[in-house]
Design brief:
Elements: E1 2-6, H1 13-33, E2 44-48, E3 57-61, E4 83-87, E5 96-99, E6 108-109, E7 112-113, H2 115-130, E8 132-134, E9 137-145, E10 150-152, E11 156-159
Antiparallel strand pairs: 1-9, 2-3, 4-5, 4-11, 6-7, 8-9, 9-10
Helix pairs in contact: 1-2
């Protein structure tokens, strides 16, 4: 995920990264974990500045297995990756995507996400799009394009209507 902080009162990249990591830990982490099955867990949150220049990273680390997913049943398969497509404003060339690592067995029926699953994904994305106060400024999730080296606001999003193997994820980037 990529975030933009505007109007930050602190000009130190590490302090801004650390503030964003704490914001994600407090506000976004519980909603993200609510989208995952219990056999997946979050080990850490890493935040690093990428523009205009790179910076040090900040992290929030958790004990192994202490932050499990909140869905009621175990994962269907590691290759069933729900995809959230981030829709850019008019005139922007690239959309963004968030691939969730897995989906619970009870959250899919005939290859269609269940209503309860759609609700928790919407709660997660609505919190990301609303953003919040970070380091004296405001932070919101954006679409970042490596190719164009731009970041753009998100106009909307949608959960992929089909769950299935994501071929692009089977090879590392650049291979």
């Amino acid at each position: 995920m990529h975030w933009r902080i505007t109007g930050a009162t602190n000009d130190t990249p590490f302090a801004n990264s650390n503030a964003l990591a704490q914001f994600i830990h407090t506000n976004i982490r519980p909603l993200f974990l609510a989208t995952l099955p219990p056999d997946y867990s979050l080990d850490s949150i890493f935040v690093r500045r990428i523009g205009p220049t790179s910076g040090q990273y900040a992290s929030v680390d958790y004990a192994s297995g202490s932050q499990p997913g909140g869905r009621s049943s175990s994962a269907v398969s590691e290759q069933l990756c729900p995809c959230i497509t981030l829709i850019p404003p008019m005139g922007v060339k690239s959309a963004g995507r968030i691939f969730l690592p897995a989906v619970a067995k009870t959250d899919i029926n005939l290859n269609v996400p269940a209503a309860g699953y759609v609700t928790v994904v919407n709660a997660f994305m609505d919190a990301c799009l609303a953003g919040g106060t970070v380091a004296g400024g405001s932070a919101i999730m954006v679409i970042y394009s490596r190719k164009l080296n731009t970041n753009n606001n998100i106009s909307g999003y949608h959960l992929s209507p089909a769950i299935g193997y994501q071929r692009r994820r089977s090879h590392p980037v650049g291979s």
